[in-house]
Amino acid sequence: MVETVSACRVEVERTCAFIRSHYARHITLEELSLQAGLSKSALVRAFAKAKGVTPYRYLMAVRISEARRLLERGVSSAEAAVETGFSDQSHFTNYFTAFTGLTPGACRELFRQEWERDDTAVETNPARGHLAALLTIVIWGPPSSPPRCCWWISSQWRSCLSGS
Questions:
Q1: What are the tens digits of pLDDT across the range 73-105?
Q2: For the chain, how long is the longest CA-to-CA vector?
Q3: Around Cβ 1, how many Cβ atoms within 10 Å?
Q4: Helix (H/G/I), strand (E/B), else coil: 10
């Protein structure tokens, strides 16, 4: 099976849709390649060229994004790990921290603090009202050096949220 990377856009989008629909369960590269109708190597090449990340990295980003939404609603770290397909809480914590620069508990706490603030606090510091948007930008940001980039942004969140 010979595929050209540029001719695989439909297959890459189909793979992305499959990942977004099934992120909470174990997904193998073999399963993704069968779903896309491409060989494993062709899928990885085409996916990386089209999306800038490997299918696995994309899966992790989707899982982290969904976990962030759960944490935002007050779900525990352990429950968020299970509901988003991580094998255990340690695995989840390691990936979440690498992607966002925050531990899941710290992220949940930031959202808890935001819920407890009244509307006047958001008016005096608008950055407080945009925490979810900032976390989404970090998770879907460029693949180059995400931990360093995320740490810088998360330190800005801490200073915004503490009012310093």
A1: 889 999 999 999 999 999 999 999 988 888 999
A2: 61
A3: 7
A4: helix
Tell me which DSSP letter residue 74 carries. Answer: T
Contacts of 1 (CB under 8 A, 6+ apart): 38, 39, 42
Structure tokens at 150: 């995320």
d(CA 66, CA 51): 19
Judged against a pLDDT cut of 70, whether residue 126 lies above it is answered with no
**pTM of the predicted structure, to 2 decimals:** 0.69
pLDDT bracket for residue 109 (50, 70, 90): confident
d(CA 93, CA 101): 11
Predicted pLDDT of residue 4: 54
Amino acid 91 reads H
Sign of torsion over alpha carbons 18, 89, 48, 5? negative
Q: Are the beta carbons of 63 and 83 closer than 8 angstroms?
A: no
Residues in the chain: 164
